[in-house]
């Protein structure tokens, strides 16, 4: 983990000279899939500049799928989150860094015990710059062998995003005592918060 964090920190510093541009005014959106969306949501909610995180489904071929249908692995969707953020407070580069710390991007179609294409690692880019940055970081992290295995994250265009049912929204905060939250999400969240302690909301 330390090697991954160091590699990302170095790349972030270098990237600001490669992709230097004035921060946008108004809110922007990043769409990431890092396995279970309850976990993704809980982590990205912690970051300063993130205004809202919406759990849902992206990358599939069925309109308005239910959670139960997506769980069958037949719709092509990934559990994903729309991360609404203020670019003057947090950059897309910093969100990408959080993406690579938030999960293991070398696991194909799974995260831990969650197995299936719906748990794949994916970046759904909204524009050419997001695509370029995602590909840049993946290429550099692979070149530096930040992980022991190659990154398998999909970098694909954002098309449709379907919001998941209401009970999935803000899930960890509302269900923290449930076993999955307590024994799977909570330990991961604590590790994530340690890495990004300087970027957390007060």
Write structural notes for this entry.
The chain is α+β, with helices and mostly antiparallel strands. The strands form two sheets. Strands 7-6-1-3-2-8 form a six-stranded mixed β-sheet, covered by helices on one side. Strands 4-5 form a two-stranded antiparallel sheet. It is globular, with a radius of gyration of 16 Å. The chain has seven helices and eight strands; from the N terminus they run H-E-H-E-H-E-H-E-E-E-H-E-E-H-H. A hairpin with a 2-residue loop joins strand 4 (110-111) and strand 5. It has helices at residues 2-18, 37-44, 67-70, 92-102, 128-143, 171-174, 179-195; strands at residues 28-34, 50-58, 78-85, 110-111, 114-115, 121-125, 154-157, 161-163. It catalyses: [thioredoxin]-disulfide + L-methionine + H2O = L-methionine (S)-S-oxide + [thioredoxin]-dithiol; L-methionyl-[protein] + [thioredoxin]-disulfide + H2O = L-methionyl-(S)-S-oxide-[protein] + [thioredoxin]-dithiol.
Spatial arrangement of strands, main beta sheet: 7-6-1-3-2-8
Unreliable sequence segments: none
Oligomer: single chain
Secondary structure tally, helices:
7
Q: Look at the structure and give the mean pLDDT.
A: 91
- The run of helices and strands is HEHEHEHEEEHEEHH
User: Based on CA inertia axes, which overall geometry fits?
Assistant: globular
Catalytic activity: [thioredoxin]-disulfide + L-methionine + H2O = L-methionine (S)-S-oxide + [thioredoxin]-dithiol; L-methionyl-[protein] + [thioredoxin]-disulfide + H2O = L-methionyl-(S)-S-oxide-[protein] + [thioredoxin]-dithiol
Protein name: Peptide methionine sulfoxide reductase MsrA
GO molecular function, one term: peptide-methionine (S)-S-oxide reductase activity
Function: Has an important function as a repair enzyme for proteins that have been inactivated by oxidation. Catalyzes the reversible oxidation-reduction of methionine sulfoxide in proteins to methionine.
């Amino acid at each position: 983990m330390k090697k991954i964090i160091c590699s990302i920190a170095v790349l972030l510093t270098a990237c600001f000279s490669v992709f230097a541009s004035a921060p946008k005014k108004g809110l922007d959106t990043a769409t990431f899939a890092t396995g279970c969306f309850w976990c993704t949501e809980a982590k990205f909610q912690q970051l300063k500049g993130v205004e809202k995180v919406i759990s849902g489904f992206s990358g599939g071929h069925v309109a308005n799928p239910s959670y139960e249908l997506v769980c069958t692995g037949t719709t092509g969707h990934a559990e994903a989150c729309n991360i609404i953020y203020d670019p003057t407070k947090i950059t897309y580069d910093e969100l990408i860094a959080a993406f690579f710390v938030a999960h293991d991007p070398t696991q194909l179609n799974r995260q831990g015990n969650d197995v299936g294409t719906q748990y794949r690692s994916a970046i759904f880019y909204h524009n050419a710059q997001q695509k370029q940055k995602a590909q840049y970081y993946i290429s550099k992290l692979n070149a530096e062998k930040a992980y022991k295995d190659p990154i398998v994250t999909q970098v694909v265009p954002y098309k449709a995003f379907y919001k998941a049912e209401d009970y999935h929204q803000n899930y960890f905060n509302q269900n923290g005592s449930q076993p999955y939250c307590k024994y799977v999400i909570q330990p991961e969240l604590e590790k994530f918060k340690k890495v990004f302690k300087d970027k957390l909301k007060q």
